[in-house]
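Task 17 of the worksheet. Students: predict the tertiary structure of the chain below and write it out as structure tokens. Keep your answer in the requested format; marks are given for formatting as well as content.
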Amino acid sequence: MLVLLLVLSILSFSNCQQCQSRDYGNGGTVCVCNVTYCDTIARPQRVDSTQFLTYTSNLAGLRFSQTSRRFTSRPNSTNRIYLNSSRVYQTIIGWGGAFTDATGININSLPVNMREMLLESYFSQNGIEYSLGRVPIGGTDFSIRPYTYDDGLPDPELINFDLAPEDLLYKIPNIQRAVNLTNGNIRLFASAWTAPRWMKTNGDYSGYGFIRRALYQTWANYYVRFLDEYRQRGVNFWGITTGNEPADVLNPFDQLEVVGWPSWLIGDWILNNLGPTIRGSIYSNLTIMILDDQRVFLPWYVVRALYNNRTRQYIDGIAVHWYLDLYSSPDLLDETQRLFPEKFILGTEASIMPAPYETPVLLGSWTRGEEYSSDIIADMQHWVTGWVDWNMALNPDGGPNYIRNFVDSTIIVNATAAEFYKQPIYYHFGHFSKFVPRGSVRIDCNVVFNDNSSSVDHVAFRRPDNGTAIVILNRNPTAVSLNIMDNSRGVAPIEITAKSITTVLYW
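Model answer:
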């Protein structure tokens, strides 16, 4: 009994529970949560100016492992990161995931206390502290059926508009829990995949279909009705996008629900319908983001859509997805920021989409975690203000998904075993969402790496509490010694373990 009390005392004092790891033979490990246990990570506590903290997660099994060290006056490595905190770039809006139907279905498949554990893992101070949430307007492929809020006969006045059972069962209850866990410090934005079939030129949820010109205003009103219905249930939004992946309409084999928007037509709709409708409503301060598609469409899509300065005034930000990043340069982000310096750029969707020969879900894959963090670092270095993951919880098949478009997720729910598994992706993402809060500003840093330089990525921020956070990804199979050089503080000597992601934090 004395030993048990001592253990409980230690856990209470540290406010941190360690990962219970399990290896499924996929090149890494998961952390297992069950009805009695789930790992946690406490919010960092300020240390004095002579010290710095490191948090490390790695292939060997460490998860947010914390150490404290002291600054020195002399470097001991020729690998160096030079910080210049006087040169600043973009301000961070936040990090998060999407409240898809699949997320809600999988959360609700768990025992009640585990549902709370899973949401706490994302949104609480003892989790990775998500601060953004994406909410689909209607169904997506990660639903069990296609649907909108006004299916049936043509209804231009939206008399029959009504939320779906999925909103009431899977979305709104979990959103409300997330709002409570963050003490309201979460920004929600909504994206529509498709319009009711009677609004579209092809009369279908998917395929080569566009909004009928005569119903442009009805489609704008549809957005407001959605906001009204959620507001009546206590859920308020920070932003909307002009529609998910409008370019999917060009893929004749794609079954994804979609509204196609050529750049010049979406500009007309924003100028004459969506913009005036939102700005003239009680949601006049709502953030409006354009594109919500791959960065290969930058900057030309936005340039053509916003060629009219009156259209430009209605758009606050540019939403980008990550799926084709391997086929496009991040320099496109720089060019977009140069052309539209008053518009922020936000990453609004990402997930591991496996090749046809791959298993959608790879429990424990460290490589997939590296794919996330390396892309996040590249985006941060090119003006992106935050990153939003796709599904927050999927089943072991990577669903449910009614068109069988299965993918991987940060958390995988095994309802049969009453367990869920935190993937390495979860921890890679957490090294940003946990330690780089909203309001942080990216600061300049230059590197001199004399060994293993091609596989070490990094980015640095000044936090709102005046702390400094540097995230370092080491994809090498060996450890790397380096020094962080900060003229205001001294030298931070660090040993970055093999195949790891590390956050360095100091005030």
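Marker's comment: The chain has a mean pLDDT of 95. The two ends are 40 Å apart (CA to CA).
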